[in-house]
User: Fold this.
Amino acid sequence: MSERVATLQGVIDSLQRYWADRGCLIHQPWDSEVGAGTMHPETFLRVLGPKPWKVAYVQPSRRPADGRYGENPNRLYKHMQLQVILKPIPPDVQDQYLDSLKALGIDPAAHDVRFEEDNWESPTLGAWGIGWQVLLDGQEITQFTYFQQAGGVDLAPVSAEITYGLERISMYLQDVDDVYDLRWSADRLYGEVRHEEEYQLSRYSFELADVELHRRLFESYLKEGWRTLEHEGGRTVLAAYDWCLKSSHAFNVLDARGAISVSQRAGMILNIRKLACAVAERYVAGLDGVRGDAETASAETRNA
Amino acid sequence: MPELLLEIGCEELPAPWLAGLAAQLKQKFTEAAARERLDPQDVRVAWTPRRLVIGAQLVARQEDREEQLWGPALKVAQKDGAWTPAALGFAKKSGVEAGALQQGQKEGGPETYLFAVKKTPGRATREVLPAIVAQALRGLAFPKRMSWDAWLDDGKGLFPFGRPIRWLVLLFEGTVVPFTIFSAQGGQQGAPLVTSGAATWGHRFLPRGQTGRAIPVASFRELRDRLRDHAVLLDPEERTRRIEEGLRAVSAAGTLHDEDGLAAEWRDLVEYPTVVGGTIPAEFHGLPVEVLQTVLVHHQKYVPIGGRGTVERFAAIVNTDESNAAGIVRGMERVVVARLRDAAFFFAEDRKRTLAERAADLAGVTFHQKLGTYLDKSERMVKLVGALAEQGALAAADRADAQAAARLAKADLTTLMVREFAELQGTMGGIYLRAEGADAAVAEAVRWHYHPLSVEEDAAPAGKVGGRAGAVFAAVSLADKLDTLAGYFGIGEAPTGSRDPFGLRRAGQGAVRVLLDFWPAEGVARPSLKALVAQALAAFTPARPASEVQAELEAFLLDRLDYVLATRFPKEEVEAVLATPGVDALDDPFDALVRVRALHGVRGEAAEDFAHLATAFKRAKNILQNQPATEAVQPALFQAEAERSLHAAVSGLSTTDGGYEARLRALASLSAPVDRFFTDVMVMADDPRVRANRLGLLQGALSLFYRIADISRLGGSA
Assistant:
């Protein structure tokens, strides 16, 4: 049994190495604001269609309403997830996951590790799955989901989505009670790296964000998303999806600002979902269509 | 008899499903095995979150079967001594040679028919089993199914399940019955995914150093015993016993607060239950018990342990042995402390402003876009409480308190604590009011006003509010629910089918229960639900005719009253009371409860009389249907003794007074004269005057009951 991994960057390093050894492509964070690693196109779009796909990446995830000005030891405006997608699902997927904990120096036999029912749903993405939260001595450290639907499209094959909460796991490994006391590297604490950012971003989203501007942005992003998606000639799915993500973040900022009423909320979420579902539908159509392979198209788009 | 053993090895199934799934498995398997003439005996099931197990005794092979198949009549089957195409077709269909066809009469009839004797030799049970197992697996209904890209070659293809299946033990007489679950690939059958075998798997992590090896088994008993060696307690009762022992040891002198029945849920969360105990740091002992319980129970599934009014420790379940308990508990305590620290911060922060100050903030909290803010709602509730007082249903002395409570009831929605722990709504309002030194009745009413949430008679706040607090609670709770119902019905959001996004059925039941179980018994009138509905509706600007909404909401509330009463009394008795044309149950739901209770009691004493009366009155009602309105009975027109005696009985009873029970007991005595009337008298006499007189007499007898119940709805027997 290896030593407990002693730094946050060590945890990232170990998990990436672990999953790379099991055939995962190691990707990079998406460079637009997202609320969860699921929203990264390497998950949201790649789980669609029949092609096998194995990927792992870190995704900083912004949840403006969870901001606490850097004062709460557990809650963050922006936390980091390490996301793994396995399609198709290997039959020993749970064992692979448990072995990944060993790679971090957690011996499951010396702890209480449990898979407790916790189904996941993202109304903005039209996505849901069945699965568990993984509890380590009562602390939720991972969301483990069998993705059933994304963008309103039934998935076949289904994908396993393993989402590690990097701060949570590191706090456990380092035996600290305050996230800002985490050792990020051998000589830097999490607080030194991120505390000021937490304060400023919390302040912005709770106090400073211009509500009217964000309402306009929300509408404009969606409009641009639809315009892009419906542009003649196709091959606009990835570009349109970016606007879907942007609108989702604008929504989150408005929400944190307390500018969304209960009944408005449902309508706004529905509007994001409609775009996400349309994107997913076109993406799948591209996969099956005579015009060829959206995978190739997406590669070209990215090279451009 | 030889034994069958099936173990379905799964990834962790949700604990709340397990007992139900095992019962289904038993039923589906037994049915399928019986259909296949395998004579299932001694069928037993056991389970853990990772396995569903069934064992049964079956015959080794099906009995041979001989069936008599009937064919065409001989006159069409034979022509000029030769078989016709009809006969030949029948022989072919039945799988016999034409020469083997026989002739006979069906059930003693005169006509001669052809018949064939079809012999089906019994198959070996192990050949039949795969189809039975497939049916049983397919037949399980899960609260939520998932696709795991699996396929069965039973002709149905894709095979969703509750969680992925990872191994199968399928043995008959101790040897493996081949069974395969395939993977699904591109909507087709793919490679084998799970193949049945004779080996099970133990606990994921225990015993240390011995995991990851398949464990061979040959019988149900051996499976259970070998699993026990590998830290899996297959028998749920065995897990319960271990949990109970553990709880006793951990709680020691403290009191367990397991009102939520967590210990029962624990049983199916783990394969090897060990109870451990943790400590709550003293700095949090001052938090309200409800907050501590919410954090422990709802968020962590831990059972609080404490003395009077405090929670000092907690008990938790783990899926491992005691050897690392100290380290595990440290982890659990850390989670609890983090949450409690949040809670303590909220508690301090929230109390910086009074609830009365917060009530004004409700102007910024939307109740529903079309129904205004929570401030609007509070104001409507205040008015409705006032209406109760004007009806005489709320004592004048309580009016001010009840209106104050209505004004404050929703204010805790603006607190940090309720925003974080939504399930504490109402509760926190009560706690904060108490801390502010507000009137106790007001605080209690605010605290409980979302209740009653369930229909059981002993559900909260039964036994928790009484006296003045009870009266104030009842007024506020009823006003809240009626306002919600009136609002949503007005904008066309009444529940339909399984769709009830605003929880209106629960609100309706709650309103009914307030009137049945919580209205003060003395000193005030009982409110007319009908009148209150009208008043609640009047607070909204109608989008459609108010009478339409009123009728819809009345029908809904009557249905909810029916539902609540039917949880306590036989459905037909409830219907007899609610459907009686003599009284509108919504005018006084409590009176309906009293009538059903009386009917239930008296009918129990005089079951036979009521059975007779039900039959007789059903007849009477049928006769009276489509007849003109009856007139006063004229004794001079009587012709038979039975008419006179029934009339005497009816007249005697019309003046009977007393409670419903006494009246029903007296009315039961009508059984004999009514029976005689129907035996001796022809109601539909030729003479129209005699006929009308008899109809009038029947109507009179029926009407005696109508003030209480429509007895004709009681079916035949009690």
Observations:
- Chain B touches chain A through 52 residues (CB under 8 Å).
- Residues 65-120 of chain B form one domain.
- The mean pLDDT of chain B is 92.
